[in-house]
Structure formats: structure tokens, C-alpha cells
Amino acid sequence: MRPRSSLPNPSREGVIADASKRAQVEPRPSGSGGVTAILQPASKLLPLLALLLLTLPLHAAWNESKSGPFIVYTDAGDDRARAALYHLEQFRFIFGEAIGRKELTSVWPITVIVAKPSKNPLPPRIGFTRDGWLVTWPAGTTPPVAWFRQLAVMFIEDNLAGRIPDEYEAAMADLFSTMELKGGKVVLGVPPPQDARTRTWALLQYLLTNPESAVRTKVLLSNLANGAEPDAAFRNAFGKPKAAIDAEVEQYLKTGNFLTVTLPGRPLDQDRAFTFVPMLPSRLRVLPGDELMAQQAPPDKVRIAYQNAQNERPGPLGFEGLGLALLAEKQPEDAKKALHQMALDTENAGTRGLFELGLLEKDKKLLERAATRNPRWAEPYAQLAAMEPGPIRKAALYRKATELAPRNPKYWTELAKAQFDGKKYDDAEKAWRAAERVAPNEKERAVLTAAREQFEQNRYDLQAAEKARLKKEEQDEIERVKNESLASIRAAEAAANAKGGGVGNRKVEQWWDGPPAVAFSGTLDAVTCRAGGKATLTARGTDGKPVSFIINDPGKIAVFGANQAQIQLSCGPQRPPRRVKIEYVDKPGPKEVVTVELQ
Fold first, then answer.
1. Closest CA to 219 of 112, 338, 99
2. Torsion of CA 128, 130, 135, 136, to 10 degrees
3. Domain 388-484 -> CATH class
4. Of 262, 289, 375, 402, which is most buried, counting CB atoms within 10 Å of its CB?
């Protein structure tokens, strides 16, 4: 289900969609559950980067601290690291308030290395590595706007269940990427670079920097995330149509005079809120390899960095990094050996290493361990579902994947297919519609809509076939019971005949002892009724000549209709005349009727 990239980079399934290419690193969808960091050309920087990282002073004083999803490593002193962590937490707090989430989280840890300034510092680039996101942040500086923009996109992907239309998510990321800190307060609304000042950015900047409309804007974003049409969402939030607000924003954008707003930040004491402890040597040894992997350096350089860590002292983290690098070099057998060594450590084996080894070995237990190590990652459940032969268990695992990654349409479509196979048609339809709602763009939504419509047709065909099958089974059962009953009657008759001696080969005697009967076929024209139930029938033969018949005793004759059911003759002319077969007594005098059969 998941194509491999040069260095497989899983993130939150489906991943961080970012329409802009302004950032130096943009995480993009790469199969189901993977992320590929797309870098600008950096071939000239890689040799220098490798030199800087591989000569990292492993015995320098490195400390670490954690807060929320952030992990900070530093060799530049705790104060500078505290400043960086404080900035990150204020960003997380303000952005969470804007999108209606009090405590933003991330599927993977976000590691920030606050490093001593160097003579030729590289720009901060966030990338995916062995155990999550990682970026190097030069101490004493603030990362560029593009870095915070990507952080905003990551938080949207990992914290919203619904999908706001693309242009709104991109505009939100642009708006908050320029957030500034001043004396413990946050300044929002600083204009981003010119190419990011879109009409949607201006709309959100106009609404969120105005205290009167800022609260209602959260309602707007919530409505849009739940699939409301834009005009209905604006009316519900502001009591007026979108066109009216668009007109106000158009004038605001033309002025070029963008107001800012100062907001209270999260109440944090920068000096006391974050505790630093010495960094574990096992983590410090693999840090050069992690940085190279995050920068998407050539796989051989990544492998050398992890091999150096293992040469100093082997450990599960180094085995994991080594295995991932060997996979990127397309050496699966060597990768397996390294990852098996990592998996022996039941406490410290890494999530990605267990996951990749589980795929290589098609081992469910390894994938289950990966899911346990990172319970917020949906991809292990999706891979486990793909291994299930039956629809019930498959659907349960895909359901878990959609709970963890509700913005991933791939998981919803696979859930719908499994539910369809399990004949849970109503549930499957809901899953298809959920996939449509979270499609990242109109093109994909159209594809999903067509797939759902085909599903509905298939559902109709199957239900019609099932209905016909059940009806046939019912008819077959009725026929079976009828035949069994008839056979029982025949058996009873045979038993009764056998008990009474039966008919045997004796001559069958005729029961009729009256005069012989003659048959007449023709057309009945009239019935003349007389007293006492007697009647005269007037008919014409095939030669057209009239013939009369009499009924003296109605109780002694039988009158049949076309279906052999007994009927009564109606008096008077027969309109229209009816075909008739009459049996009568062949004797001198009037022709006396025995039977009448109307045809």
C-alpha cells in the first residue's frame, strides 16, 4: 500500500498538504502514511553538512527538555533553549486558540536542536527522521516565516478531524507564520511575503485581527471543517452572506494598510516552566545520523553516520537508523539484519524500525508493536487491515485507522470497501461520504464521488439479486412442500387400495347406464328459460343451421365454463354468441342435454 521513497518518511497518514512551495522544505503526500520532504537543491551544502555533523563534539555539554510535542536538544546553554521552547509554546497556544483546539498535539515528536552558531549556518529545515520531525535552530535566532508556516500546516493535519477548504488552511498557516512575541504577548497579523497575501489571507487577517469578529471566525472555520457550504457558513457565523464580507475585504486589501492585534500569550514563566536534564549518550550518538536523514542527505552518508554511532557503542537506536538507511539504499536483506537487532530490545525498539521490519517480514506482531509504540499513528493499523483475509476484521482495523487519521480519504475508502464486502451497505455508504468530505481538493473529491456512485449501483444490483434469490428459494420451498404433500396423499391412497385388495387386473365397469350421448359443437345463440327451471337452448352448427336442445331437469346436467369451473347459464340472447360443446341423449324426440361446455 505504501511506495517507498529514497528515505521513507512516515508522518500523519496522508500528510501535510501545503499548496505553497515557498518553504524550503514542504512535506507532501507519499503513499498512505508516508511523508517525503521535498528540498530545494542542496548538493553544494551536503558535503559541508556531513562534515559539520560527523565532527559533532559528542562529549560537549548537551541537555534536553520536553514540553507538549516539542523536544529540545541544546549545546548552546539552557537559556537560549528556553527562549526557543517558549516561542514554540506560544505559537502552539495561539494557533490552537484560533482553530478551536486547547492543546495542540502531533502524531510524531517535533525535535528542535538549538545549536551553537556556526560560521556557515544552514537555514532551519524541518524534515522527517528516524523517530519524528527534526529541525536545527541556530541559538539566538528566530526561524524564518516558512518554518512556522510548515509547523502550522502540521498542527492542522494532526488536530482537525474535518478538512477546511484548501485555501483557508493555507491562509491560516500564512497568517500565523508571521506571529511575533513582544514582552510575553503575541502580535498577530504581520503581513507575510507579498506572494502569500492572497484574498483568503486578507479575509482571515481582517476577521481575526478585529476583536468583534475574531470569536465568530472560529465558528466560521468550524462550520467549514464540518462540510458546510461557504455562504451558509458565513451566514451562520456573521449573520450576513459571504459576498458582503468579501466586499469589505476587497476594500481592505486595496488599502494595503493591514492592522495587527496584540493578544495575551500563554501564561508561562520562561525561566521556570522548562526543566533541562543531561541528554542521554545513546541519543546523542545517533543525532548526526538523525540530522542527515531529516535533511534528506544521500542514503550512504546517513548510513555512515549511524555506523559511526554503532562503532562507538552499539544500541537499538543506531540499529534502527542503520536499517532505515540500508532500506533507502535498496539493501533489504542487510536492513533486516539491523532491524532484527533493534527489535530484540523490547523497551527501546523504535516505531519506524518495527513498522518497516513488519512490512519486510509480513509479520503482524511487529506491526502491532509499532502501533503500541506510537498509539497515534494510523498506518500500522492500515497495514494490519491489508493483511486480513476477511471483511469483518479488516473493517475493524480500518475503522481504527480512520479514528486516528480522520482526514485521510484512503483509509475511509478502504473501510467502505471492507464494509461493502461484509454486506454492511449503510455503513459503507457513510464511509464513502466521509472520504468525499476530507478529500484534499475538488479533483480528488470528484473521483471519490464517482466511486461512491458506482458503489451505490453495485449495492442496488446485489440487493436486487439477493431479493430474487430469496424469492426463488421461497417458491422452491412451496413447491417442495406441495410435492411432499401430494406424494403423501398418493402413498395413503396406495396403502388403502392395497388393504382393500386393490383393483388388480379386474375389468373396469362403466358407470354410465343411460342411453348413449352425442356431442354437438357450434355456437350458442340464446337460452329460453321456462317454469320449473326448464330451458331451451338455441344453437347453430358448423353448417349454420339452427338446432334446439331442451333441459328438463337442471339438477341432472353439468354446465362448465372455459376453465372447467361449473357455471350457470344466463337467460336470453347470448351477446355475443358463444362457442359451445353440448352433449345430449341420442333418442327420438327433442334433444335432451346432458352437459354444456362453454368455450
1. 99
2. -150
3. mainly alpha
4. 289
